[in-house]
Structures are given as C-alpha cells and as structure tokens.
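Late entry, written up from scratch paper. The run itself happened at the end of the previous shift, but nothing got recorded in the book at the time, so transcribing now.
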Amino acid sequence: MQNIDVEWAGQVDYLEAWELQKALVAERIANPETPGKLLLLEHPHTYTLGRNGRLENLLLNEDELTARQIAFYQVDRGGDITYHGPGQLVGYPILSLKRVYEQPGLGMVQRYVTDIEEVIIQTLAKFGINGQRFEGHRGVWVETGQGLDKIAAVGIRIQKDGVTSHGFALNVQPDLSYFSHIIPCGIQDHGVASMAQFLDTPVTIVDVLPHLVAAFTAVFQLQTNIQWAANQPA
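Output as recorded:
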C-alpha cells in the first residue's frame, strides 16, 4: 500500500498554492519514492481558465474583476473556466499514477479522473446527498429539481512519470452567485449546486474533511499521514 501525506492548509492564495504544487511535482519526479501528497484548502475569490478553455466564458472585464476583488488566472490544468472561493473544498493530489495503479498505461488518466469522482460521490453519500456522473461531462452532478447541476468540478494535469497536479473543487457552502459571472466549465445548459442546498443544518469544510480523506484513501488504497496545518477539525 502506497503512502500519502494529507494536509489541510486553510485558505491559501491561488498563486501560492499553484507554486507549491509545482514544487511538490518536481520533488516527486526527481525522487519517485517520495510519498504522495493530498493538499486540501480553500481559496479567496478566484476564477481560473484551463488550457482548453475559452476566454469568452469569463463574463467580467478586468475592471469589473478588480472592483469585485476577484483574481483571474489562466492555468495549465485541463478543462475550461471555474470559480474558487470561501466555502469550497479544493483538493490537489500530487501522486505518481505509475505507483498508484498496478497496471498503469492506456486509460490511466481516465481511470484517475473517474476515481476522483468516486471519492466525491462517496463523500456526498455520507451526508445523504446523491452525487452522480453525467455522461459526456466530467465532475460530479446532483439532481436539483431543475435538472442536473454540477456540485464538484475536476480539472487535472499529468506530467512526467504520471505525476498529477491540480484536482477537484467541491462546493460545500460557497456563495454560488460568483458562478453567475462565468459560464462554468463552458456549459450553458446546466447550473451549479452546493452541499448546503441539500442539508437542514449548516455544513462547513471542516465537517466534510474527515469523510473526504477517508473516501480518498479507500478509493486509491493509500496509507495516510494526516497533518491539519490550519483550523484543525474537532
């Protein structure tokens, strides 16, 4: 069983987290025996556009972004545009897929994304929320009564030796109005949702963390070393 270090870092500026990911990736490429890392955090208000994204899916100009104090970055993950902000649990797994999977190779990336979706589906189930996949679209979706809306986005990058970066973003209880300034993931016909919409009592990221870590280690069959660097769960 492979080892992984899990860290909850609290709220971290997007650029700071991106630079940290690059350093962690470089470390694991240089030394493949280094344990994997699951970096869990939330960001201040930020829009990111993936390398396959379309800039027109950002509906604010530079002045409007500045006025609303929203950062915007074009980044090196897959996918289109998404929002990060307080109340959204973001996970950046830094793993060597060649070590995680017994038979790496063709289809490894698709399996990895499917496994991330499974982690989120299992996490949601702990709160009685039915997360599901939506054919032709990545991420995790929920039925809201208006159709399927996305509750978690997935966007990754795979580098040398199958080392991963970027990851997933689960809407726990963010301000969903920030999604109205973009076309999330470039999809116009479906909206976004949060866990808070489905629960009778308030839920926080700290409430969700232990369940997500348990699901991640179970799905990927990893041995964890957990560090709560900020806002340690009770």
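The longest helix spans residues 108-125.
(Scratch paper discarded after transcription.)
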